[in-house]
From TrEMBL:
InterPro entries: MobA-like_NTP_Trfase, Nucleotide-diphossugar_trans. One of its GO terms (molecular function) is nucleotidyltransferase activity. It comes from the Bacteria. This is Nucleotidyltransferase family protein. The lineage of its organism: Bacteria, Bacillati, Actinomycetota, Actinomycetes, Kitasatosporales. It comes from Streptomyces triticirhizae.
């Protein structure tokens, strides 16, 4: 699942999904990395500028979900994406949640975290130098509770913190960087060389 609904408040209202990197919108690149990691279906949650995103980005094969409540924060987008997964004819074994504003989280990192799925009870997250980051993997047993607790900008942070003893950290610092695009100064990174792993 790709959370791509943010309006980029700290970026002066620039829609994060539409920021360009390597000549393509971030949302398209990130959805491609999820596909490359073997995730299917890829659910893309849009909010800010959704019509423009659908018009500009090639999201073939993705299930696009529009979150009308995107301004309330990431929690509503996580709920919208999980609701789309719950509505699938065949419920998934788990959900890998990635963020659109982390363009250097590679398919290799996503596949590594997805590969940690052992049972419906699995909870796993990418780690960078031992620090928890994204993507995050929730086994099927967690999905309803994660959706119920997703509020405001916190997404699943509180849920994960309360279960830290059961969370598997999967080191990805050798194949990805967790740097995000959050402030205007970060935009320059999109055209520069990739950050060192």
């Amino acid at each position: 699942m790709l959370l791509a609904a943010g309006g980029g408040r700290r970026l002066g209202g620039r829609v994060k999904a539409l920021l360009r990197h390597r000549g393509r919108p971030l949302v398209e690149l990130a959805a491609g990395e999820l596909r490359g990691a073997g995730c299917a279906p890829v659910v893309v949650v849009l909010g800010a500028g959704a019509d423009e995103v659908v018009a500009c980005a090639r999201l073939d094969g993705c299930r696009v979900v529009r979150n009308p409540e995107w301004e309330s924060g990431m929690g509503s987008s996580l709920r919208a994406g999980l609701a789309a997964l719950a509505a699938l004819p065949e419920p998934p074994a788990g959900a890998l949640v990635a963020l659109v504003d982390q363009p250097w989280v590679s398919a290799a990192a996503m596949a590594r975290v997805a590969g940690a799925l052992r049972s419906p009870e699995t909870l796993a997250a990418a780690a960078y130098a031992g620090e928890r980051g994204h993507p995050v993997l929730f086994g099927a047993a967690h999905l309803a509770a994660v959706a119920a607790g997703a509020r405001g900008d916190r997404g699943a942070r509180d849920y994960l913190r309360a279960r830290a003893d059961r969370l598997t950290l999967v080191e990805c610092g050798d194949v990805a960087s967790p740097q995000d695009i959050d402030q205007p100064a970060d935009l320059e990174r999109l055209s520069g060389p990739p950050p060192h792993h």
